[in-house]
């Protein structure tokens, strides 16, 4: 490959648009594979994970490469489900070019737009490929108009399909002949120099047009559109020709940015300074972790040491592999733009930079979406608790959009992800990879309780039965605080009614009682005033005053008209306009309070306050209502009072939990 060029392409698009099938066709038609892999038949080179084969969807990004007309082409296949957006972002981060796949019968959806915007933000060229041409019987002009409406006037078909539907038999390349006047004008408009020549009536050569086209592609002024049928293999070799000729190398594409000795820098690809970006970690049964890296700069060879510039630790690179689906091929070197796999790294994680010690650049981190949904898990056997935690830890390393925690307040292990399918896959992987089974249950809600009025409380802990006893008596007053103030403790003891060394113990007892108030939840927004008490010169102790403080608070709270609070989340839902009524109706049914609506491109965005208790499985409901075209974000905003008719049932449940603890 010394003479050829290295070009890599991330394949993005909505679910079921045909991304994996297209990538399989590119590999097969270029001779990299002996058979055409089929997702539906479970023999895809790229969808090799058991979960992918079972569900017939792409879950993990996968990489394979081929050679075409002397050039090395890498393809990074990515999921279409928004539940696995982290994989798409990682794939885009590693790529110098993007192929955006559109099924003409569906058109572009919110996922396509989202992934396109991420690629556009990175500044890499985006090439549109219309798939499934043999099964499409609609009006192609309408599809192109729709794509242009969504992605802008830069959308430029550079082929004309020959035949339609079952009659689709090939494509005519408009770039080679440049006879198409509208295409010529689209290219000319991207170049001021050519536009001046055109307006002056001067001749523009095919070579000038080609250079202007490549520049327009690089600058995002042109988004070329090509047509294929992957299963029939029509248009695939023409697509390979286009990618080989017009795809950008690492030298030509946007350069990675980072920090070097406190200064912002662009990393120019060279052969001497080595810089790698770790964009994916995968657990492998026999080798352990596989670290997928993009060679940003340098000629990478085995047997060297590199600095993990995020951790400040050295890593020894013993073997160097090139990925091909689930297989790996050991290689002697990798050049800029290549995708490689490293093993047996000790300190490295997704998003880290590995670099030459004398060039310790830290590349910008991988931007990932925040988890939206959660579910509680319980090991089927108590003995499996440790294995579950070990498995969750390894899965988090493999997928940084997933995380887990044991909530000490709720006494639950909860897992968090981008959607119900995402979490379902995590649970399945626990069983497949780590041989542990868990049951899922509804996550508990972190309710709070507060008080409406002032009240006084008395706490007494006295045990005097001869010898050293226990003696602590305290009087407190409690009163409500504003919602933005959680807690305040005021010492108004005078005259030595309680010696100063025991006052912190009274407060410790109060805080302990507030962890679970009389309604069964944590108490907030309360001022506690300690104003009187009694002590014994011999029998008083820190323990006695701690117990007295706890008893005093419980006594006071019961008289202070306690009430229940629930967490309220700000939810933003983005949907096509035709689903507005159904989505708003659903939000209202979830006790949501609509704050407003606004147009955002072709979509409507609804903002609402919704209680967390009502958002369980909202991801699935929204997907069902909008046929997969709706997205949402949610974040904690504030606590608010639970309506009385609902509160009583919750209080009963909290008290049952308390009794069972």
Number of strands: 34
Distance between the termini: 66 Å
In CATH, the homologous superfamily of the largest domain goes by the name P-loop containing nucleotide triphosphate hydrolases
Strand ordering within the main sheet = 2-3-1-4-5-9-6
Largest sheet: 7 strands, mixed
CATH architectural arrangement of the largest domain:
3-Layer(aba) Sandwich
Under the CATH scheme, which class of the largest domain? Alpha Beta
Strand content: 25-35%
State the domain count.
5
Number of helices: 17
Structural class determined from secondary elements: alpha+beta
Shape designation: elongated
Quote the CATH topology of the largest domain: Rossmann fold
Task: Estimate the mean pLDDT confidence.
Answer: 92
Low-pLDDT segments: none
The proportion of residues forming helix, as a percent range, comes to: 25-40%
What Rg, in angstroms, do the CA atoms define? 31 Å
Summarize the structure.
By secondary structure, the protein is α+β, with helices and mostly antiparallel strands.
Fold and architecture overview:
Helix content is 29%, strand content 32%. The strands form 8 sheets. It has a 7-stranded mixed sheet with strand order 2-3-1-4-5-9-6, with helices on both faces. It is α+β, with helices and mostly antiparallel strands. Helix 1 packs across helix 10, helix 11 packs across helix 12 and helix 13 crosses helix 14. It folds into 5 domains: 199 residues, Rossmann fold, CATH 3.40.50; 108 residues, Beta Barrel (Elongation Factor Tu (Ef-tu), domain 3); 69 residues, 2-Layer Sandwich (Alpha-Beta Plaits), CATH 3.30.70.870; 112 residues, 2-Layer Sandwich (Ribosomal Protein S5, domain 2), CATH 3.30.230.10; 83 residues, Alpha-Beta Plaits (2-Layer Sandwich), CATH 3.30.70. The chain has 17 helices and 34 strands. The model has no long low-confidence stretch (mean pLDDT 92).
């Amino acid at each position: 490959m010394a003479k050829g060029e290295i070009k890599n392409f991330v394949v993005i698009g909505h679910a079921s648009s045909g991304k994996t099938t297209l990538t399989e066709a590119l590999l097969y038609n270029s001779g990299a594979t002996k058979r055409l892999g089929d997702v539906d038949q479970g023999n895809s080179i790229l969808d090799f994970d058991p979960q992918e084969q079972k569900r017939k969807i792409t879950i993990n990004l996968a990489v394979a490469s081929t050679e075409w007309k002397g050039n090395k082409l890498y393809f990074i296949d990515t999921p279409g489900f928004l539940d696995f957006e982290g994989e798409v972002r990682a794939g885009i981060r590693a790529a110098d070019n993007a192929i955006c796949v559109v099924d003409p019968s569906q058109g572009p959806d919110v996922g396509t737009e989202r992934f396109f915007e991420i690629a556009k933000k990175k500044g890499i060229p985006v090439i549109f490929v219309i798939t499934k041409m043999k099964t499409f019987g609609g009006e192609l002009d309408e599809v192109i108009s729709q794509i242009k409406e969504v992605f802008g006037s830069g959308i430029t078909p550079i082929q004309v399909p020959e035949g339609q539907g079952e009659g689709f038999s090939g494509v005519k390349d408009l770039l080679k002949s440049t006879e198409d006047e509208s295409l010529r004008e689209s290219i000319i408009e991207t170049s001021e120099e050519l536009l001046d020549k055109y307006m002056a009536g001067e001749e523009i050569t095919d070579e000038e047009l080609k250079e202007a086209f490549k520049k327009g592609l690089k600058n995002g002024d042109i988004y070329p559109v090509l047509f294929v049928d992957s299963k029939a293999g029509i248009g695939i070799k023409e697509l390979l020709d286009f990618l080989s000729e017009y795809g950008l190398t690492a030298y030509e594409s946007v350069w990675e940015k980072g920090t070097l000795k406190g200064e912002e820098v662009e990393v120019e690809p060279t052969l001497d300074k080595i810089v790698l970006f770790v964009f994916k970690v995968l657990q492998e049964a026999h080798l352990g972790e596989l670290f997928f890296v993009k060679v940003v700069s340098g000629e990478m060879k085995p047997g060297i040491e590199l600095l993990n510039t995020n951790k400040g630790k050295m890593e020894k690179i013993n073997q160097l592999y090139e990925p091909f689906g689930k297989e790996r091929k050991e290689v002697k070197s990798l050049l800029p733009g290549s995708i490689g796999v490293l093993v047996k790294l000790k300190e490295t994680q997704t998003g880290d930079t590995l670099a030459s010690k004398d060039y310790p650049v830290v590349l910008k981190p991988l931007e990932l979406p925040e988890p939206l949904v959660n579910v509680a898990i319980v090991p089927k056997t108590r003995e499996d608790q440790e294995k579950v935690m070990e498995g969750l830890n390894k899965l988090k390393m493999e997928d940084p959009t997933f995380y887990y925690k044991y909530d000490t307040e709720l006494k639950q292990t909860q897992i968090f992800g981008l959607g119900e399918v995402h979490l379902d896959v995590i649970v399945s992987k626990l069983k497949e990879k780590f041989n542990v089974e868990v049951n899922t249950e509804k996550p508990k809600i972190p309710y709070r309780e507060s008080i409406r009025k002032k009240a006084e409380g008395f706490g007494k802990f006295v045990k005097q039965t001869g010898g050293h006893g226990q003696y602590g008596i305290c009087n407190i007053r409690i009163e409500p605080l504003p919602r933005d103030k959680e807690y305040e403790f005021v010492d108004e003891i005078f005259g030595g009614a309680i010696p100063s060394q025991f006052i912190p113990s009274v407060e410790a007892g109060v805080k302990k009682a507030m962890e679970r108030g009389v309604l069964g939840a944590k108490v907030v927004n309360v001022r506690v005033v300690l104003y009187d008490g009694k002590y014994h010169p011999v029998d008083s102790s820190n323990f006695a005053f701690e117990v007295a403080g706890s008893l005093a608070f419980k006594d006071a709270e019961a008289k202070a008209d306690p009430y229940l609070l629930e967490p309220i989340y700000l939810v933003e839902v983005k949907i096509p306009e035709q689903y507005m009524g159904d989505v708003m109706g659903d939000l209202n049914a979830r006790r949501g309070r609509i704050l407003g609506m606004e147009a955002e491109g072709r979509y409507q965005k609804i903002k609402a306050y919704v209680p967390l208790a009502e958002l369980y499985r909202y991801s699935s409901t929204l997907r069902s209502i909008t046929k997969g075209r709706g997205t949402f974000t949610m974040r904690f905003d504030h606590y608010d009072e639970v309506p009385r008719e609902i509160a009583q049932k919750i209080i009963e449940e909290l008290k049952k939990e308390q009794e069972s603890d």
